[in-house]
Amino acid sequence: MSTALETVGVAARRAGWDSLMAGFVPGLPTLEQAVLDTAERLSGPPRRVLDLGGGPGLFAGRMAARWPGARIVLADIDPVLLALARDGLPASVTVLPTDLADPGWPARTGTGFDLVVAVMTVHYLAPESVWSLYAGVRRVLAPGGLLVVADVMPDDGLPTVMRALDPAPPRTVLTPAASGSVPDAAGLVPAAAGFVPDEDEFVPGRAGLAWSRWWAELADDPSLQDLLAARADIFRDRPPAEFTAGPAWHADAARAAGFQETGLLWRSGRHAAFAAH
Prior knowledge:
This protein is α/β, with parallel strands linked by helices. It is 42% helix and 17% strand.
């Protein structure tokens, strides 16, 4: 960054994105804590981490702070979010333009990752691309590595409850992983992940309005016009797929890719974190 004002602007926009995600994902801090603690309990602090669809890199930044010796790769397709990530993250994080709908994406990221995360990413992709994503992650993971996919993932066995929780889940529920589905070290959400009885700040309508306002503020910034134009070109013919399969679908995709153990690490309303190992 060339001036302090520009640096402050990047920090403010990234902080605004953090607030946006907290509005869309009830209990987001507990989700991130569950991922961090589980990864460490499984095999110690990871040396290489891949953040798929990492946006402006808020979670990547927190992983870099937690694991200062780790090399982290953030992959995303959005040029605006990639620019915010590059300007806001430490040198230990590599930021890569990557199209996860392209089955060849693993060639860009490299291999040998101990942890791969995809938080609020797969709902943008078509089902066949998500299925392919699991195969790609399997190729880039180091032996014994962990994948965590967190997104809207309603419980197929509780359709009435899931409908009641949509659009505004009033409470946060954390669940243990399926019995025998993940290693004992990651069998339960760590106590540090906590239990949040009320998520008053999670109001989807309000979150959607905040989303529109955040992008509108960027549209008024002359320095971002080229990036915004490039973003419009990318997404003009590829709107979000709004893919929201349940855990059973994700388990089938993961096992077809060669993962032996699957299960949920965390749930909050219709959102869940699915792990594969």
